[in-house]
Design goal:
Layout: H1 10-36, H2 41-67, E1 76-77, E2 84-86, E3 103-109, E4 126-128, E5 131-132, H3 133-148, E6 154-158, H4 163-169, E7 180-184, E8 188-189, E9 191-192, E10 210-211, H5 218-224, H6 227-233, E11 238-243, H7 253-262, E12 266-272, E13 282-286, E14 289-293, H8 303-306, E15 314-323, H9 324-332, E16 341-349, E17 352-360, E18 374-377, H10 389-396, E19 400-403, E20 406-409, E21 419-422, H11 429-435, E22 445-451, E23 454-456, E24 461-469, E25 476-478, E26 483-489, E27 495-497
Parallel strand pairs: 2-18, 3-6, 3-11, 6-7, 12-18, 21-22, 22-24, 23-25, 24-26
Antiparallel strand pairs: 1-13, 4-5, 8-10, 9-17, 11-15, 12-15, 13-14, 16-17, 19-20, 26-27
Helix pairs in contact: 1-2, 6-9
Length: about 500
């Protein structure tokens, strides 16, 4: 873990340590009662394994909180040339297609589409030409297998929120040339912030009493599900992991070959930061180790420095290449200890908002535990996530064309992708589709901001910097066929040169 700053007195440590022991003991007793509430032997065994893992995480959280474990900013160094390499420097030799026999692809599929106003798994949101995220992932792997006569399987790590819907959806791919497997990540109990006791009192408690503990749970879940051993038994040695909503995360033979040639157990794809990515985690060298530094770990007085794209030039895309035998070794030796991310939430009980805590981990933080681990700085085209409707506008636009499930940038585009900021009226997919029923042409767009009750007509073209601001209680309709270039459009429909 990061170095400790000893600013507390010994008596303070002793008191907090004792408090931590009491909290841990109370939690253990509560978890035992929780597991005893399950009558089915198979369900109880699974729950006990998950609760044991949760308790380990909870106890470590208490210890670190009491000891004041924090980051020593003075120890941060820029990664050396072996720890971060540029994609362009990887040897340009013919791809060894035979290495595909060692590969599996895994999509992180535990998220819901609630932030975009959708019900169910985020992977079923329609993003392009009638295709969902899941459709496009399947098309990508199917084309890869057809192109190289390979048999790369696709794994989906679901959460208890997305599992049943996903199992139903993947049935439609039975005729496709692809093997799809899914497994569930863990289900951990949320914790009341005041009492530090678990929210659920029995296994069948409301779903909001539980949470999926972040994608750092990937390693444990892969092992506990049996999928890890099944992959190894079938000759798979490497898994390519990415977020289910990243449409740029396609299999890259160049990176796969590089990983096998170098013997690296873990490769993290990085890409250059822009103004939109200043909070993205980055790789650093710390005490002779390559580590992932997240903004949440940065002392407040250094946050601006962290956001400086001249000092921290690139960030983690969460496209990860991981050696499966290394995963087995590290999980079975209990050696994976990723930094804990405390996430505060509220739930409703008895008509009142109750503060709860969920402890999460990120799989990128595991990089320091793997041998030969390093980052590869890849082109921005490998990072096309859709977190908001602003991102959705980008991937739906004429800036990209769809080829075998992958988005390809229009060759006439010059410079980075445009910066798009849509206001609260566009937060949900329903509002987005209502106000932008026809996607504008944006190949020559640099920056777009739209706020308020704005509607775009058909065949609209946006160029340069376009800002459309509609005042409260008013409405702006951009007429069909409009060409807006370097303009500000205000509530009274005045168009001003920008």
């Amino acid at each position: 873990m990061f170095a400790k700053k000893h600013t507390k007195t010994h008596s303070t440590y002793a008191f907090e340590s004792n408090t931590s022991n009491v909290a841990a003991s109370q939690m253990r007793n509560a978890l035992n009662k929780l597991s005893d509430s399950v009558e089915d032997a198979e369900k109880r065994a699974k729950l006990e394994n998950e609760l044991d893992s949760f308790f380990t995480l909870f106890r470590r959280y208490l210890v670190e909180k009491a000891s004041g474990t924090t980051l020593d900013w003075d120890k941060i160094r820029s990664p050396n040339p072996d720890e971060v390499v540029d994609y362009s420097t990887i040897q340009q030799q013919p791809a060894n297609v035979a290495n595909l026999a060692k590969l599996a692809v895994l999509k992180l599929n535990g998220g819901l589409g609630t932030s975009m106003g959708c019900v169910g798994p985020k992977s079923v949101i329609e993003v392009r030409d009638g295709n969902t995220f899941l459709d496009l992932s399947v098309r990508q792997i199917e084309f890869l297998n057809r192109q190289y006569d390979s048999d790369v399987p696709l794994l989906l790590m679901n959460s208890f929120n997305t599992d049943s819907d996903t199992e139903h959806l993947i049935k439609k791919y039975t005729a496709n040339r692809i093997r799809i497997r899914s497994f569930n990540q863990s289900r951990y109990p949320r914790v009341f912030k005041d009492s530090m006791l678990p929210v659920p009192s029995d296994y069948e408690d409301d779903l909001d009493a539980w949470y999926p503990p972040g994608h750092g749970d990937l390693f444990e879940a892969l092992h506990a599900s049996g999928e890890l051993d099944a992959l190894l038994a079938s000759g798979r040695e490497i898994v390519f992991v990415s977020n289910g909503d990243n449409l740029g995360a396609t299999v890259d033979l160049k990176i796969l070959n590089h990983m096998i040639e170098t013997g690296a157990e873990y490769i993290m794809e990085l890409t250059d930061k822009t103004r939109a990515d200043v909070k993205g985690g980055t790789l650093i060298s710390y005490d002779g180790q390559v580590r992932l530094l997240e903004v949440a770990q940065v002392p407040k007085e250094h946050v601006d420095e962290f956001k400086n794209i001249r000092k921290f030039k690139n960030f983690n895309t969460n496209n990860l290449w991981i050696n499966l035998r290394a995963v087995k070794r590290l999980v079975e030796s209990s050696s994976l200890q990723m930094e804990i991310i405390p996430n505060q939430k509220t739930i409703v009980r008895g008509g009142h908002d109750i503060n709860v805590l969920q402890l999460e981990t990120a799989c990128g933080a595991a990089i320091r535990h793997f041998k030969g681990a390093h980052g590869v700085v890849v082109p921005r085209s490998r990072f096309l996530p859709v977190k908001t409707c602003s991102d959705l506008l980008l991937v739906k636009s004429d800036l990209f064309c769809l080829e075998h499930g992958a988005l390809k940038l229009d060759p006439s585009r010059f410079g980075p992708n445009p910066l798009i900021k849509l206001g609260s009226h566009f937060k949900k997919v329903s509002g987005f589709n209502l106000r932008i029923p026809h996607i504008p042409k944006i190949v020559e767009l640099d920056h777009l901001t739209i706020t308020g009750n704005v509607f775009l007509g058909k065949g609209v073209t946006l160029k340069g910097t376009v800002i459309i601001v509609c005042s409260d209680g008013q409405k702006i309709d951009i007429p069909n066929g409009s060409v807006l270039e370097n303009v500000v459009v205000t509530g009274n429909l005045q168009i001003l040169e920008h």
